[in-house]
Amino acid sequence: MSRTTGAVLIGGGTYLAAERDSEIIRLIPLKAHLQGEITLARDAVTLGAGVDLQTMVEYAWPEHFQALAEAARESCPSMNIRNQRTLGGELANSRFDSELVILLHALNPRLSVVQAQESTEYLVEWSGDGIIRDVMLEIAPEMRLKYLRFAPIPSALPFLGVAGFSAADGCRIVVGGNVDSLSVLEFDTKDFGAKQQELVLEHAEDTLLPDHFGGVSYKRKLLMTALTRLEDALCG
Amino acid sequence: MRVAFQLNGKPVETEVEPGMNVLEFLRSLGVFSVKHGCDHGECGSCTVLVDDKPQNACLMLMGTLDGERIETLEGLNARRRMELMQAAFLDEGAIQCGYCTPAMLLALESLLRANPKPDEAAIREVFSGIYCRCTGYVKPMVAAKKVALGEVDG
Amino acid sequence: MNSSPEKVLERVGKITRRVDGTALAKGKPVFADDIHLPEMLHLKILRSPHAHARIREIRTEKALKISGVVLILTHKDFPVHYFTTAGQGYPEPSPRDIRILDETVRYVGDRVVVVAAETLAAAEAGLAAIEVDYDILPANFDPEKAQEGNPVLHPETGKIDIHDAAHNVASQLEASLGDIQQGFEESEWVFEGRYSTPYAQQAHIEPHITLTWMDADERLVIRTSTQVPFHVRRIVAEVLDYPMRNIRVIKPRVGGAFGGKQEILNEELCAAVTLRTGRPARLEFTRAEELYAARSRHPQIVLFKIGVNADYTLNAIDMDILENCGAYGPHALTVMSVTAQKALTLYRSPHVHVRGQAVYTNLSVAGAYRGYGAPQGFFALESIMDEIAHALTIDPIEFRHKNYVTTGEDVPIAKILGEGREGFPVVIESTGMRECLEEGKKLIDWELLRTAEKSGPERRGVGVACAAQGSGIAGIDMGAVFIKMNEDASFNLLLGATDLGTGSDTALAQIAAEVLEVPVENILVYSSDTDMTPFDTGAYASSTTYISGGAVKKAAEKLKARILEQGLILLKEESGRIDNGLVLGSNGGRISYQEICTRSFYTENQTQLMATASHMSYDSPPPFNATFADVTVDVETGLVRVNKIVSVTDAGQVINPHMAAGQVEGAIPQSLGMALSEFMIFDDTGTPVNTSFRDYHIFTAIDMPEIVTRFIHTHEPTGPFGAKAVAEIPINGPAVAVTNAIFNACGVRIRNLPVTPDKILLKFTEPDL
After folding, report:
1. Which listed CATH number (3.30.930.10, 3.30.365.10, 3.40.250.10, 3.40.50.720) goes with C21-30+478-616?
2. Which residue in A has a C-alpha nearest to residue B110's C-alpha?
3. DSSP classification of residue C98
4. B49 and B22 share a domain?
5. Chain A from 76 to 105: CB within 8 A of any B CB
6. Cβ contacts (< 8 Å) between C692 and chain B: which residues?
7. Is B128's CB within 8 Å of C700's CB?
8. From first to last of its 236 residues, what are the pLDDT tens digits of chain A?
């Protein structure tokens, strides 16, 4: 939504309110129009785009998805704001240092997107146009989901975040944090070994941005450590 | 635009600038327990309860308020449980400058509505959105635990 | 002042609710901004986008046409007058190097224009419509290059008390004791180290906020969140050339200050608008302004060279301080003096030399911030002490036991240094340093953690730091009080002292109640208001309990003597005593306070029972503290987690146990933030990068380690009921206790704060770098 042209729809109203610099003539709060529930079926979990982050923290997730609760908590360390921010807003803003965005890219759920007409798209391929109506997470056989964050203190944004999803037929690794774009890599093996790690490193190292926590060479070393730890979590 | 909502139990219907934030609006009404601290929602000094949940008034635009139920400390001061919480905060030295105190009390009130016997982790979590630069959260945690354990002498 | 130690204290030292607590707990409108004034104008400041520039032209026409914009003030609206924004003793030791609005801007954030408008939105629109042409000047951001004079920040004639403007030296200090060269020659070992500390922000949650208006008598009222109402009155009168008698400054409840509100940052602009328009005016800082355009901790580079004797005692200390003031020099000299004075008070050494220079750079302006230079000095001192202990393979605690000053010792260097000017003889009358260390050692489990196996990716370690501070500024700080009695045995206690959230009103009420032998509820405190309360230099330098408390004690004692005298007259007895709110005559007569006061008002020997007193001190007894940190370092990522902080303090007689502990508990996360998460970063144009709490990470509830706070009871004979200060001392130790613990955990020595993961990882993997 945030990337939509025109001034009508702006994703993540909570972010908008903080800006205070736009003259708003008419306001249509999407939250009221979006479904705010999590529905659990046998092979999938569907989240309305209007689900707020605190609801995601408190939800009794099936074991495979437990990491989502943590990611929702960590991507917004203030409970006050978690009560306000929605899943849809979080995805629409698509901050690279949002653990929820990083983790969801690893899961690559199907989105129902409303534009001129409704369509279904995978998150990783989504252009950012349209309004997300809901997010469907499929429960895959043998799935594992892991997220690792690196920040100076728990309430600070991660300067590096890595997520991994693995299932019987493959795995998907996402690198975010202070980066100029998310790196999403898919492998057709569930083993996230040295070769795969090398490929992720190769792909992601150019996205790492230097900051006051360290330069690119530090970030690269940290990423190597993070990927090793991800291997332990996914394959151990 | 026109919005109708409930403030501290009383219906309010008013014409508003949709882009005005709720913090400015409440303070213009003289609801001064809701404080300004950071402009961006991080500090939580402007906490209000929206349908029982703590939220930051500075991140809410008036145009989104229609149908909501808003509570501030002004509406809760006379309630028994709030008095007990205030007594605990006073007795345990949990108030220093007091600027974030209304926000902490509202957050705690919201927690107790959902969970009358919260543990330490739940209390810490509900304080997560409220910055305090005076207390290190040590005595507010002590006071809140005392409330949760029903150990306050009213 | 010396109270009889045998008397059992009944109010002092007891857990007592805050006297202002109920109003705060109920969210009553007690803060500066909690009022509505009719016809009020809202102010906004246009700030410089350039680190150094000369203003060629300011075009305000478009802005003035915006609906609601009422007044725009620029440097042309004010005569050239240099002052300092520092609210401190007068004449100020800080250089007079700033104008209310200037035609040269010297850092990104410097004030350019102020807009007053009917609404905040109109003021913001006005700001956006102002056009300013700048001639960009070269800028310098490196304090180590400042003295090259490229550029010179303050070339203007008429600026006063800049030590060496051509070399950008705002202030300088130098002091010697013994013969430093001889001292090193005699020493068995000599160690050197270079340490640095960064900018750090106060981050009080209530921003700077001022409201001004003209009252019915056409006097200017300034309602402001300040630590220094009397300095506000003096400085506003001076810079606006307005009669002081026509200014009234009211300090309501303050939502945190920490030194940041020991500064005149918005009062004079608000007052200028009110005087020009006759209308109320309001100026509140945004959080961004707080984070780059208010006042921060001075970054310092401190070099230590220390000579140690064969018996592990110190023989020579040479200290060199380079302080970065930023673009202006408020508190430049005095902060640096405190860095030196507090660090050099802690350990005895026959040979001492210290040199300090405070220099200008084109960065945010530093000022007073809790600890006032001491945290920088103790970061360096306690780092090198740890390094020496390690090099000499002596337990860091044992090493300190051999060196800190003890009761009865004098500290000659402290006298030589003073604070801003030569001080007064310092003799240590009370110290609990040994007990602080021993108690903390137990609470942190020192032996076990220190010697535990350090292996694997996560390594746990423990560190210690000692610290001293002062209690007020010797020979300078003065506090005054007025106390009067009412018919119901209540007392109005009118204080110049400024409670900025610390609870000082309560502590002072306890002191009055103790003397007068009445419950604390009988003491009705009002502070502070320049029309209503007597003078006080203000709440800074850990002065309130010690200095203002001394004044309260004196005034209460005077009043108590008057009550006894009047009581005996009413009883028609020659002698007697006071006991628990009663005057007891030697011949058996008894009369209550209530009756004494009522009869004194209406029926017999009519008089208002009241007293005033002021207090200053040539002593500034140091409180002492030992802080311990238990940390875990992930040596594969460089990240540090603080598990636990133990802080043990000798603050003399604690007046209010909860509030004293609260000072310690609040200081710890501020210091941990400076060490680990609070970064004021500037890009290569000097533009601040972290201008919101999203990027400037203060510790929240979920970041806090376990905190353990203890007090060692000592009795300071010069303090009220034996009290010393507590507000600042606990902020000196945590950061360096953490870096010492990091060293213990993984062998990495961090000499430059902040601790960042890249530094740890680099030094861990390549220790020789």
Report:
1. 3.30.365.10
2. A80
3. B
4. yes
5. 77-84
6. 38-40, 42
7. yes
8. 334 443 334 455 565 666 655 566 667 777 667 788 999 998 899 999 999 999 999 999 988 899 999 999 999 999 999 999 999 989 988 899 999 999 999 999 999 998 888 899 999 999 888 889 999 999 888 899 999 999 999 999 999 999 999 999 899 999 999 999 999 999 999 999 999 999 999 999 999 999 999 999 999 999 999 999 999 989 87
